[in-house]
Each structure stands twice: as structure tokens, then as C-alpha cells.
# Entry
Amino acid sequence: MENKNTPRPPLSQIIIYAIGQFGWALASFGAGNLLLYFYLPPETGTEAVFPSYIYQGAILGIATVIGLVNFSGRIFDAITDPLIAGWSDRKQSKFGKRKSLMGLAAVPFALFSFLIFYPPSEIVGLANTGWLVGTVFLFYLFFTMYLIPYNALISELGHHPKDRMLISTIISVAFALGFIVGGFAYQLQDVFSDGRTPTEAFQMAILIFAAVSLFLMLIPVFFLNENKYCDQSPTYIDAKQSLKSVFANVNFKWFAASDFTYWIALSFIQLGVSYYTVNIFGMETSMATQFLTLSFLSSFVLYIPINYLVKKFSKKTVLSIAFLFFGLTFLLTALTSILGLPQEMMFYGIAIGSGFPLAAFGIVPNALIADIVHEHEEKTGQNLAGMFFGARTFMMKMGISVANLIFPSLLLLGKSADNPLGVQVTAFVALGFMVLGWLLFSRYEGKTA
# Structure
């Protein structure tokens, strides 16, 4: 419900807000995309990229240590989402109800973003496993404490309908920049490799990312004028009631279910880019950086067309097409060795082709949720921005959790150049999730879809 007395944010304030997205995207890149690369590295020839720090084999024949740690960390992360969302919605602060939590979280969030890659021992053992579990859990706690209030600001800054797509587009650009910069970890590892072990070179890259991300995350904390430009009203219902109200919204349930499948598939790309690069496309690990960079650059080109398509058709239509298009990229990845086409052509073609779904999923969902938030407030009088975005984040993290559990287990089928079966299977599984997401999202019928 738009408050006529709250001024619309100028572009400068939206950019200040978006810089925080750049920061948290960079800070979370390592934990989200590089843990598997570091702790269960791809094999180049007869040797792995890094030495083993934790047990590399199967547990009970189907799981891995890194998969279980990632899964349990994400589950813990997801459980804390509604608690922190409710806290954020109810909190009152002269500094800003959302910014106050973001300020508390930024430093430990950045700190643990690199400590998870600093195992205490150089040999496989319980010390490294215990360190990994502890740092992963703490990382996700402070990640959630920053992300939930940050995302709630999308609808509160975007209290005017025309601002929602603009805010969603700009923060999508910021997220993509964080993702692209994070992807340079592979190349920075090569740059810092002179006179250093692969582990030391990789850790130096992660440490630099942590310092930069902290600086970026603090920009909106200090310079966003939340009290002036955000349309906020106090919320007094507890987290349980808020969560129940959010999931009673039928359209949100269908969106959240489809979003869950999207994040599983996207996590397969993020976890698997180094494996696809080495084992399917036959290139060096450092080329994974080029794949990620090209994918997101191609998505940048499509940001304005995506906004045009949303206005001409609808948010639902654009996202529906994106589900199917993303599925096609996974299908082509899985069939690369069968199609007989040049691997290099497939590598660049798939990277460019993924630009459309990345742009669509980067921009549209946040605007869609902001629409739902305002529709819900008009209907019920409840301002539950934090809980709606927290619930979306919960589903996102559950999807990532499932991906982190499944993906390493599938790699047990083969992750070498001679036997890439496990890597190929991951692409087929991701395709299945995208088709399922398309079917679920077809049930969404929001009035601003």
C-alpha cells in the first residue's frame, strides 16, 4: 500500500542500496560456489587441483562429507530465515530497522566468508571437518542476518509500482557483478601461484574478495536514508503467525515452489562450472571464469529487453520462457559429447545462451515478490515485507541445500576426463528440475503477473 507522504527514492539512493547487493553477492560467492571446488576438487590428469583436507570418499555409499556439511549448513541457514525475518519486521531503530541488522552482520559475514577456506591442518582429519562445520554454520547465520533485512528493503524502497522493476533491475546488475568478480577466483589463483601452493594462491584471492565485499556491504548501512525513503509500518505479530500468513498466500506458494527448483538448477551450474569446463568441454579450470563472465555479460545485454518484454507481455510469461530456456542449456551441456559439435563452440554458445534466463531470473522474481507484498498489505493490512522475502530466501536456501547434497553424490559416478558420467548426469538432473519449475509456476495467477 503506497504511502503518499513517503518520497520516492532518487536514483542515487537506489544505486547506494544496490552496492550492498554487489557486496553480499561477492561475500557469498565462495561458500556458495567454491566450497566443492576446494574440498572436493576436479581432477586434471591424475592429480586433484588441491590436496585433500577432508575425507573424499562416499559415506553410506551415496553421500560425501562436503555434501553433508553444505546441506546441513544450508538447512540451519534456512531455519533461521523466518526467525530473523520476524525480528527484522518487528524491530524499531532510529538508525533504520533494516540497516541496524545489516550493520551488525556485515563484519562477521565477511570474516567467515574466507575462514571457511582456511582449514587448520594440512592432512585429512576431524580437525578440518570440525572447522568446516563450525565456520559454515556461522557464515550462514550472519549471511541471513544481512540478507533478510536487505531484501525487505526492495518493497519498502519500491513503494511506488514504477520503482519496483527499476530497483530489481539495478540490484540484479549488482548481483551479477558480484558473481562475475567472484568467478575470477579461478584466474586469480593462477595469478597468485608464483612461489605459492595452489591452496595459498586460492586463499589469497578469497581474502581479497572478503575485504572488498565488507567495504561494499557497509555502503548502504551508512549512506542509505532508510527513514526518509522507505515506506514502513510497525509489525507486531510474531514470526510463526507471519510465516503462516505468508504461506497462506496461494500465489506466493506456487511461486516459491517453482523458485525452489530454479535454485537447485542454478546451484548445479555454480557448483559444476569447473567440472563442466574440464570434464565436458575439455578446457583448463581457469576457463570457468570466462564461462561465468560471458554468461553474465550476455545477461547484461538483455536487461533492457527483459524490462520491455515484461511490460509488453507479463512477468509470468517471461519467467515461464526462462524456465524452458534454462532447461535447454542443461540439455545441450549434457549432450555435448554426443552431438559431435566442436567443444569450444558449445562452450561459448551455452555461456551466451544462458544470458536470457539469468537476466529474467535475476530481475523479475524480486519485482514479483514486491508486487505480492503490496497486494497482501492491501488485502490484510499487514506489512510483512521481511517475512515474504525471508520465506523466498528460505526456499532459495532449501533449493541450494538440496543441490549441495545431490551434486557431490552424482559426481561419485565419475568426475574425470576419462569418466565424466557423473558430471553429465548432473546436467540431466538440472534439466528435470527446470521442467518441474515450469509446471509449478504455470499455476501462478497474481493480478500483477
